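ok so for the tutorial part 2 we go from a plain amino acid sequence to predicted structure tokens. step 1 is just haveing the sequence, like this:
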Amino acid sequence: MLAKALYKYTDQIILVVCYTNHALDQFLEDLIDIGIQRKDIVRFGGRPKPSIEDLGVNKLKGEKFVRSRAEWVIVDEIKAQAGHYHDRLRDSYASFRTLDTDFNRLLVHIEFEDSEYFDAFEVPTPDDGMTLIGPGGKPVDSTFLISRWAQGEDAWTFKDEPNVCNAEHIWTMDVARRRQKLDTWKSAIAKDVIEDIYDAGKSFNDRQDEVQRKFGESLVVQLKTKRIIGCTTTGAAKYTEDLKAVCPGVLLVEEAGEILESHVITALSASTTQMILIGDHK
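step 2 — the prediction. this is what the tokens look like for a chain of 282 residues:
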């Protein structure tokens, strides 16, 4: 009778929480028997009794919900942002995987962080505009000198170039020191790449969550048309965000003696003005 009074004399949404599906079904049937209309009730959770199967939230999800054009524009924009972060995440991960062999990336790093080494590895451009062929028949490119240095080799035909001669201390370093220097650069680059992977991944997940929330808004709008929302403690935890968005004013807990306090707290929201506990006080 208390639930009926709240239903009849207030406009608050009542969230009914039970410990088991069986108890929830029985409680909702009792509400219908005392005159609460079926159209005002929705039930979360699985395995309902055939007599109240039509109250399931899945039936509600299947009802047509029309979004405005402006809402679709927002959804499309969020999806586009998610696509951008997805591509950035893919590129950052690919960059991380090729870090050990990406000498172009090393050159970009040391140009700003270790310019002395960058100058030592700068490959002179032939005056005649021809492409110089290096050992093994491969064309000499901008990574030629840093690659040879990393492998413990000399500057080959560029030994007498001014930038190489001025960096004798760099080109005479032993292999162990060269590897140590390379590891320092790679660690710094890896730190930046990992941070970018984290940022891109988080931003992608955030946009995906936004899209889910946008599509979830239709459920919230439909739930707000109901006066009684029934669920088990498991359902209350699973649909916490949706239930809070509906802003139920009354929390009615059946089988309160069987339910942990933490589960009751989960069902509470800032909009709750009354909490009614029903059950054996023992």
